[in-house]
Amino acid sequence: MTPRTALGALHIGALMFGLTGVFGKLAAASPAVIVFGRAVFAVLALAVFARFASSARWHKLHAQDVRRLLLGGLLLAGHWVSFFIAVKVAGVAIATLGFTSFPAFTVLLEGVIFRERIRVNEILLVVLVSIGLVLVTPHFDLASGATTGLLWAVLSGLLFSLLSLVNRAGSTRVPPVQAALCQNLVVGFCLLPMAAPQLIDVRPVDWLWIALLGVFCTGLAHSLFVASLAVIKARTAAVVFAMEPVYGITMAWLLFDENPTLRMLLGGALIIVAIVVSSQLSGGTKKPGVGAQATSH
């Protein structure tokens, strides 16, 4: 893969991740069913990629690896369920922007868990993201769908941040595709008891949206991201994936007539700029697990 094709693959992956909320809203099913189906189709897609396209050898799992993958799967399940609840309650735009707060959580949690010094640009990231989230919500009222949805989306971002740190801790032992496949298996088993009674009522067209979520927005997008990281710097990838909410909000505007207010656009722009600037100021250093950090949404 050349740098040019890798950059193209990154943009395609970012677009697919941006469509996550769109397909979740199109599917007239509960978040539990959506997440269960997404995990099943993702496992199939990742298995195909691992068999025919991935050159990484699979790692023999030890007890420590199994515990970490189980924890990661539980966090991934919680992240997806809370995100799709946010989509159903508040719409794609607010859910996507609320989730985008996860880099700020990652900065704070890394300082606590890994005892890493928080740099000035990372403090700036946290401040700007916080201001952006305030702007995204027109008014704070727990009876309001917008506020409730944003809180679910922020919870989704927090769980995704914890997931990224779990993946970072085990990234030197388990290849990213293997880790993603195992964690999606855990998600499927976790959601099966809640989803099983509802599966018979899922319409065929909803299975189509769920399949697209699992195959394209999870399996293929993850595979493109992992493959491109072999050529593209991590900070370049971070900048490209900052476009994810732009793609998602644009598609929601076109498909669902979700017209973002000027205040929401300013808040979203502030969050995206904060992520881009922070990734550029941090230099080209790639922390372990960066591939896994951005490939589970």
Automatic annotation (TrEMBL):
The chain crosses the membrane at residues 34-54, 66-86, 92-114, 123-140, 146-165, 177-195, 207-231, 238-256, 262-281. It comes from the Bacteria. Gene3D superfamilies: 1.10.3730.20. Keywords: Cell membrane, Membrane, Transmembrane, Transmembrane helix. It is found in: Cell membrane. Its main location: membrane. This is DMT family transporter. Residues 10-136, 148-279 form the EamA domain. The keyword Transmembrane applies. The keyword Heme does not apply. SUPFAM superfamilies: Multidrug resistance efflux transporter EmrE (SSF103481). It is a multi-pass membrane protein. It comes from Pseudomonas tehranensis. Pfam families: EamA.
